[in-house]
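Work Package 4 report. The design task specified in the project plan requires that, given a folded chain encoded as structure tokens, an amino acid be chosen for each position. We show below one input record used in the internal validation round.
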């Protein structure tokens, strides 16, 4: 009897990511998907944002503090949006003007020349990280990360057939020495997961067909090291000396500084990009600039790396309205962005104290958020549930070292901060501290 399937070739109720259908029933549809799809699932936005729909009406509009987005944009941003003409919609996008604008702004901020050829605009910082992996990684090559950190980076490494080596960094100083140790290990020599073994086997097979030998496969070490600073989700930071040391000790490795939250940090690591040939910085308009919906990011670095990133991406990757609005707000919104950064710094300190009053242990943060460890998953879940019931979404985590943690975005807005602070104070008045529960 033939199995019942829908028009996609899947069994009824089956998901495309279900290994029992995608990698099992080969008679139903097309070729075997690439090996990396076996271990990667679609990104899922925080579930609390969905839960807000059921929040009681008396608590007012939903307050979304689970994605580290910036505050609501000033009215002037909406006015600028209304000035876009029909040509912005009719014609394919041209990022050159924004790249030149960013280069000029950074030249002024960093007090050294940054050329337009050293800047590429991307579809958010995510597109930049994806391109960097595609440029530097292939089967068997290594990318070194810290954990916990931005969850998309391991996905991008896997998509390229690369091997991730992860160094624990939950708090305290940046683990520079341990990262160097991991990065210096020759690719293909370590004992790893089944996916690692498969990646190494594929690399050996490719080299065999190209006429290489076994010793050729033993690479020089990591191709990429990712420095997410301030780190998401912990808020920890690396120092300028940490990055300089990595660049000096790993001259054949590209050091990627993910500075998505760099504007909020006491020290910006981005100026090292370009001044050190093997350092690039990824930045974005999504956080401090408050324009996450535009999906505009950029990379700064040596012009040779920027040229390769152009080749690795799609044409017209960023929509014309996004380019126009980001460029206009870069010109007009610098003072407003600075105000947001200062306000977030003040909120961050108060937020840490409020989370501590609930029994959480807040980690030192230089991002626009605070991560607090409540010691047990149940305690974190109770706080999360009360906040959601009041129309406030914060980030919780399903497992691992973060299972007992909540990450709360600083609103960066006086009215929104009062809503959040009142809610946390109300919980503190009603709930015993986690440490006092029997």
């Amino acid at each position: 009897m033939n199995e019942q399937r829908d028009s996609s070739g899947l069994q009824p109720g089956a998901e495309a990511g279900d290994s029992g259908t995608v990698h099992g029933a080969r008679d139903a549809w097309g070729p075997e998907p690439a090996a990396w799809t076996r271990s990667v699932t679609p990104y899922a936005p925080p579930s609390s944002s969905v839960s807000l729909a059921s929040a009681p009406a008396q608590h007012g509009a939903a307050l979304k503090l689970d994605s580290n987005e910036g505050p609501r944009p000033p009215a002037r941003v909406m006015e600028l949006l209304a000035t876009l003409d029909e040509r912005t919609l009719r014609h394919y996008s041209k990022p050159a003007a924004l790249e030149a604008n960013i280069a000029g702004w950074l030249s002024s901020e960093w007090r050294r020349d940054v050329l337009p050829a050293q800047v590429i605009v991307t579809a958010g910082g995510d597109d930049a990280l994806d391109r960097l992996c595609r440029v530097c990684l292939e089967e068997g090559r290594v990318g070194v990360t810290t954990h916990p950190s931005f969850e998309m980076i391991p996905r991008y490494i896997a998509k390229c057939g690369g091997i991730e080596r992860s160094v624990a960094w939950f708090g305290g100083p940046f683990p520079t020495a341990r990262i160097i140790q991991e990065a210096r290990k020759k690719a293909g020599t370590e004992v790893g997961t089944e996916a690692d073994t498969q990646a190494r086997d594929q690399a050996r097979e490719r080299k065999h067909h190209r006429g290489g030998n076994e010793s050729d496969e033993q690479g020089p070490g990591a191709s990429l090291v990712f420095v997410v600073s301030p780190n998401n989700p912990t808020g920890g930071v690396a120092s300028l000396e940490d990055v300089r040391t990595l660049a000096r000790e790993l001259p054949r490795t590209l050091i990627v500084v993910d500075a998505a939250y760099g504007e909020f940090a006491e020290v910006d690591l981005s100026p090292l990009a370009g001044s050190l040939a093997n350092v690039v910085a990824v930045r974005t308009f999504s956080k401090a600039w408050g324009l996450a919906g535009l999906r505009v990011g950029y990379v700064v670095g040596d012009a040779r790396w920027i040229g390769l990133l152009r080749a690795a991406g799609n044409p017209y990757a960023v929509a014309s309205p996004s380019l126009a609005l980001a460029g206009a707000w870069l010109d007009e919104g610098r003072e407003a962005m600075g105000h947001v950064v200062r306000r977030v710094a003040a909120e961050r300190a108060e937020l840490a104290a409020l989370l501590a009053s609930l029994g959480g242990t807040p980690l030192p943060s230089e991002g626009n958020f605070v991560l607090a460890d409540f010691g047990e998953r149940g305690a974190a879940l109770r706080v999360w549930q009360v906040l959601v019931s009041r129309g406030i979404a914060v980030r919780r985590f399903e497992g691992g070292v973060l299972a007992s943690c909540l990450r709360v975005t600083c609103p960066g807005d006086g009215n929104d901060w009062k809503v959040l602070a009142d809610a946390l104070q109300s919980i503190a008045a009603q709930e015993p501290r986690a440490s006092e529960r029997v």
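The first strand starts at residue 63 and ends at 65. Validation will be extended to a larger panel in the next phase.
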